[in-house]
Amino acid sequence: MKGMESREQKMIDRYTRHSLLRVIGPEGQEKIQRARVLVVGLGALGSTISVLLARAGVGYLRIVDGDAPELHNLHRQILYNEADVHEGLPKAHAAKKHLLEGNSTIVVEPYAEFVNAENVRPLLEGIDVVVDALDNIATRYLVNDCAVSMHIPYVFGGAVETVGNVMSIIPGRTACLRCLWPDPEAVKNHPTASTVGVLSAVASAVASIEVAECLKILVGSLDDLIPGLLVIELWANQYQIVALKPDPGCICAKVAHRDVPRP
């Protein structure tokens, strides 16, 4: 009994600064600890996102990436180190090791694979929130469409050069990624970090905002989500929220009549 009490007290102590927050509280922290979150992509965004979610106490993290850490990743992908590059471990397995070093009380399920049309639905099964840390639009459309059809909240984020974007998608309540970019051909040649670079601070900022949005969803604070697409230009100190409404002709309109998901 004393051992159980000791473990419970350690859990309380670990998350006490979260539990003290007016917007989270003890009940909200319990919801976070019961949550199941999918992080898709473990690069500049995903490495920071997964660290913050693990440290916040998300009870189950499913992490997906088919790449291995490379030297040029290290300036912005804070989860990995030079030893990971030397060993050549897949990012998913290296990430699991480091995440559990920071919080051994959670479950981390790694998938060392890329998201495709065949595995996207199984990867989303049993998940409460999907957090996007991808770097290509085609895969984002796959995840968006699947999340919308499965009625799973989806937090989109992107970072290129000195610009970042964040948008929370709640099926049945908000616009989705196809409302923002209805024509895949028009955006398939958008610049990426591999072509124009990315400021590490922008990636960290976007990742932090995505985590905040994810936690809002998990504790049920849907009214506090960003009301549209957040655009930040960190170098020029420009910040804007672009209001978006669901497109009546979009796939997300088909689920608009369903109940809004609540944690």
Under the CATH scheme, which architecture would be assigned? 3-Layer(aba) Sandwich
Percent of sequence in beta strands: 15-25%
Low-confidence stretches: 259-263
Strand arrangement within the widest β-sheet reads 3-2-1-4-5-6-7-8
CATH homology superfamily name:
NAD(P)-binding Rossmann-like Domain
Q: Which percent range fits the helix content?
A: 40-55%
**CATH class label:** Alpha Beta
What overall form do the CA principal axes indicate?
globular
Q: H/E series, N to C?
A: HHHEHEHHEHEHEEHHHHEE
Largest sheet, in brief, is: 8 strands, mixed
- The total of beta strands comes to 8
List keywords for this structure.
disordered C terminus, alpha/beta, 8 strands, Rossmann fold, 263 residues, single chain, 16% strand, globular, 8-stranded mixed sheet
Describe the protein.
This protein has helices at residues 2-14, 16-19, 25-34, 44-56, 82-87, 91-102, 120-124, 137-150, 177-180, 184-187, 193-196, 200-219, and strands at residues 36-40, 60-64, 107-111, 129-132, 154-160, 163-169, 229-233, 238-242. The protein is an alpha/beta fold and 263 residues long. It has a single domain, classed as 3-Layer(aba) Sandwich (Rossmann fold), CATH 3.40.50. Residues 259-263 have low confidence and may be disordered.
Summarize the topology.
Elements: H1 2-14, H2 16-19, H3 25-34, E1 36-40, H4 44-56, E2 60-64, H5 82-87, H6 91-102, E3 107-111, H7 120-124, E4 129-132, H8 137-150, E5 154-160, E6 163-169, H9 177-180, H10 184-187, H11 193-196, H12 200-219, E7 229-233, E8 238-242
Parallel strand pairs: 1-2, 1-4, 2-3, 4-5
Antiparallel strand pairs: 5-6, 6-7, 7-8
Helix pairs in contact: 4-6, 4-12
GO molecular function, one term: nucleotidyltransferase activity
Pfam family, one: ThiF
Protein name: HesA/MoeB/ThiF family protein
